[in-house]
Write a structure and sequence with these properties.
Blueprint (H helix, E strand, L loop, with lengths): L3 E5 L6 H12 L2 E4 H14 L7 H8 L4 E6 L2 E6 L2 E2 L7 H10 L3 H17 L2 E5 L2 H5 L5 E6 L2 H14 L6 H17 L12 E4 L5 H15 L2
Parallel strand pairs: 1-6, 1-7, 2-6, 7-8
Antiparallel strand pairs: 3-4, 4-5
């Protein structure tokens, strides 16, 4: 079994950015499970499936063949043979993923791939139920969070940096809705694993968060 670092937390907490940096520092493989769920959500969205229609989601999610490929150290999310990295980060896809990721059929469809990757490699994996469900035996578990205001401001700045229009209050409301959906869903709700270390990044920059997690890793593993 590889050495596994599980990073969980709410939407907009910076899990992907931090996980990538930690993986690079340790020469581990980064596995963005949220991107995999977003890829399935993108497929269902393009099919015109209602994300709240659990039967329709279950019936069609198997048609979404999701795989991961690495090129020059970058993770590429492949949906039915197509690189969808550039298509899966919209708010619409994120909201769809929040609804469909709780579907048991969707979770079963992706769970084996995630566990196989972790069994064969040293990985940093981020999501919402990595430490509780996907990799319950991970050597290091982190619960990364930040205040709603901090997460909304970060997302707002990201949109502005891309030259896109954004409304801060709308982003804040979307994050609050996503939090509620993720924490109250029946299957694998977002929660901190009992043995996870809480890292609140509200008043920390990226370098400080990465350093904190690397310190936790070294205390537990090295």
């Amino acid at each position: 079994m590889g050495c596994n670092i599980a990073i969980d937390g709410p939407a907009g907490a910076g899990k992907s950015t931090i996980a990538k940096r930690v993986a690079k520092e340790l020469s581990f493989i980064y596995v963005d499970t949220g991107a995999m769920y977003r890829a399935v959500a993108l497929y269902l969205q393009k099919k015109g499936i209602d994300g709240t229609d659990s039967q329709a989601v279950a019936d069609h999610c198997q048609e979404a063949e999701v795989s991961i490929r690495y090129e020059d150290g970058e993770q590429l999310v492949i949906l039915n043979g197509e690189n969808v990295n550039a298509c899966i980060r919209t708010e619409e896809v994120g909201n769809m993923a929040s609804k469909t990721s709780a579907n048991p059929a969707v979770r079963a469809h992706l769970l084996n791939l995630q566990r196989n990757l972790a069994e064969k490699n040293n990985v940093v994996m981020d999501g919402r139920d990595i430490g509780t469900i996907v990799l319950p035996d991970a050597q290091v578990k982190i619960f990364l969070t930040a205040s709603v205001e901090t997460r909304a401001n970060r997302r707002y700045e990201e949109y502005l940096a891309k030259g896109e229009k954004a409304d801060l209050e709308d982003i804040k409301k979307d994050i609050e809705i996503r939090d509620h959906q993720d924490m109250t869903r029946e299957i694998s709700p977002l929660r901190q694993a009992e043995d996870a270390v809480l890292v609140d990044s509200s008043n920390m920059n990226i370098e400080e968060v990465v350093a904190a997690i690397l310190g936790i890793y070294r205390d537990k593993v090295e």
